[in-house]
User: Fold these one by one.
Assistant:
Number 1:
Amino acid sequence: MTNTITMRDAFFDALYELAKRDRNIVVVSADMGAPSLDQFRRDLASQFVNVGIAEASMVTVAAGLALNGKRVFTYAIMPFATARCYELIKVDFSLMNLPVTTVGIGAGFSYEDSGPTHHSTEDITIMRALPNMIIFSPSDYVMAAKLAEVVCQIPGPTYIRLDRQMLPRLYDPKQSLTFSEGLASLKTGKDVCIIATGNMVHNALAIADKLAESSIEAGVIDLYRLKPVNEELLLDLIASSPKLVTLEEHLLIGGLGSAVAEMLVDHGQTIPLKRFGIPDKYVYAYGGREHIQRICGIDVETVTKAIREWW
């Protein structure tokens, strides 16, 4: 189902409503603009700080505010919000367990025409390695909006990876969804289960439809909280599945597929697992996101064909 709002605007619109009621909520931006942030500048000027193109300073300012009782949100393009500031995030947010949410825009190949400097394909790996860090990877704007409220209730550091593009809606905004379980079963299937996150949940659903044409029933799980994984629920959902597939627009090393594989090993599960993600390389390619996905072998047609052959 189509929609007319991005994850970013849905998230910051929801956060704005929360900030009007809670003056301890503060947004610190590294010179990033957005229509949804204009209302912070206009109406809540004392709760909005623009540090300029200085992401390291953004982290330091956020930590200082958090140490003085504020609930802080930092915001920048994803590689600059995470990798550029990584040591500072480790020391200032993770080590001190501060209530700061790192909000990154541009998951995966969202900045499709900006090259590997702007691709965010290793952020899950590096952020998963930080103790105390909780990671969310929403798949539509409904979830992104709700996560603004969710993270405000978490006393430690969190990370939200937002897709830049306008993705179809998967969840009903009229339902009272809490997104507290960390994952959701969107489709059931007896032959194979596809576990995906973020924008790739949409690819997973399209793949399931194509597999049905070959009489292969595929289930789809949206794993939107990547750390900590709700292992008890995930193991229960996949218990009867003969094969598993993970699908991510992220490096295979340390990403979603790694998290699922680690869980299976730790719990002594021997379910066959096939991981689809980006190989160990930088992608110097242009021509649109679908084209880049095809080069990496994570597009709908390539994954569908590979699952059919595996099956």
Note: DSSP finds twelve helices and twelve strands in the chain.
Number 2:
Amino acid sequence: MNSSEPEIPDEDIKLFLQAIKLQSVYDFSNYSLKSLKRRINKIMSDTKLSIPEIIRKIHEDREFTGKVVKNLTINTTELFRDPKVWRSIFYDILPLYLKMESIKVWHAGCSTGEEVYSMMIILSKLGILEKSEIYASDINNDVLDVAREGKYKYRFNQHFIDNYNSVINTGKDLKEAIPLTSYEYYFNVNKVYDVIKMNPFLTNKPVYKIIDLVKDENLFNIRFDLIICRNVIIYFNYELQNKVLDLFYKNLNKNGCLVLGLHESIMGPYESRFNKNNLAYFRRDE
């Protein structure tokens, strides 16, 4: 934690978590303590309230409680974030599924949807978007609304185009040459109105659901060939990470693949249930 941030007593953290659990449907008790303290400090800074004042307001104001929950669950994302990962998905992982009749993909913790669109762009480039089924979930319905619309600020996301080109228009050769494709095929940029808007053939495809990975099952009720869950479990403690990995393992098809964030890995009891290949974890059948 930043040394300039006030230290929050463990008892106050406990009371804060109890208040959230009592006044909402969310339970953050198994989240990483370091991450929680960082986000609570930001809430204190933004609201100009002390932690006891925040706890009291959580008990008194349902709208305020909702805002606190959203601040606890916000994740940073962008189109083709960490291009190295997306080049691996493009050139190493997805070609393994080219001959399948259908491909089912779940983006767990999809936030505002940029990674959902990244995946669909790659599937389109490989010529397999039509036979793909795209599912995406998050704990926060507000970010799902943004994902459904596929509309983002241009000035905040000017690097989208650089990321796109670094993944789609450069890199290894596939077995069959894939021609360069302008980003305009997938999204439009209006600099005057400060807008990047995904094209309808992308926005109309995914199925979205609110899913809390902490306590919900797979509410899509299907099994997947590929699960993308990047920069989510890093916020969970060891026990909760294993619970979520169990959820993923049980809902992957044979030879299904799990992709985590660059700074996330599988350790403990689930390490033996996956075969790691570069950035991908492939389900190992028992």
Note: The chain has a mean pLDDT of 88.
